[in-house]
Automatic annotation (TrEMBL):
It is a single-pass type II membrane protein. Keywords: Glycoprotein, Golgi apparatus, Membrane, Signal-anchor, Transferase, Transmembrane, Transmembrane helix. Gene3D superfamilies: P-loop containing nucleotide triphosphate hydrolases (3.40.50.300). Pfam families: Sulfotransfer_2 (PF03567). The lineage of its organism: Eukaryota, Metazoa, Chordata, Craniata, Vertebrata. It comes from the Eukaryota. One of its GO terms (molecular function) is sulfotransferase activity. It comes from Petromyzon marinus (Sea lamprey). Coiled coil: none annotated. One of its GO terms (cellular component) is Golgi membrane. Belongs to the sulfotransferase 3 family. It is found in: Golgi apparatus membrane. InterPro entries: Heparan_SO4_2-O-STrfase (IPR007734), P-loop_NTPase (IPR027417), Sulfotransferase (IPR005331). This is Uronyl 2-sulfotransferase a.
Amino acid sequence: RYGVEQPAYINIIRDPISRFLSSYFFRRFGDWRSEQIHLVRTPGMKDEERFLSVNDCILKNYPECTNPRLFYIVPYFCGQDPRCRVPSSWALKRAKDNVVQYYLLVGILEELEDTLLVLERLLPHYFSDALKIYSDPDYFGLGNGTSSLKKQLPSRRALQVLYQRLGYEYDFYYFVRDQFHLLKRKLGLR
């Protein structure tokens, strides 16, 4: 369209419930770097909201735990069309089409080592030895130190409700995961 070559788009996505829980608790309690980080990220959050249990948030339909706030990954991959912000099969299809048409790779965070292996194969100039560096004991703990503090798993009932609310997000996640596994097989990886 502009007479220049398209860049190689790459991304990594995370299981939607895992992403939601991490965000929920990080906004409230920060991570190992500082429990006070929430004061910067969410200065107006009152204590009753900060200490609201994730179960109550989900089961009592607080805005943070309902759509459209849960609709996160699909809009990102869908694009800038205003319809991309509304949970719908149209937005889901467009997000999937964009992955197929424009992305060299969308990896899976839960399969980060395999994602790094694929990146080493597809873009060796940029990612040679990425897995080796990631696995190096001198570097290994760095990424793991950003876990949100005070994270708790919701009840089984709350998880079921959340999974239902994240239907489009999970449809997209499973699609991307299947595409990723297909690419791994094409490259001769597990």
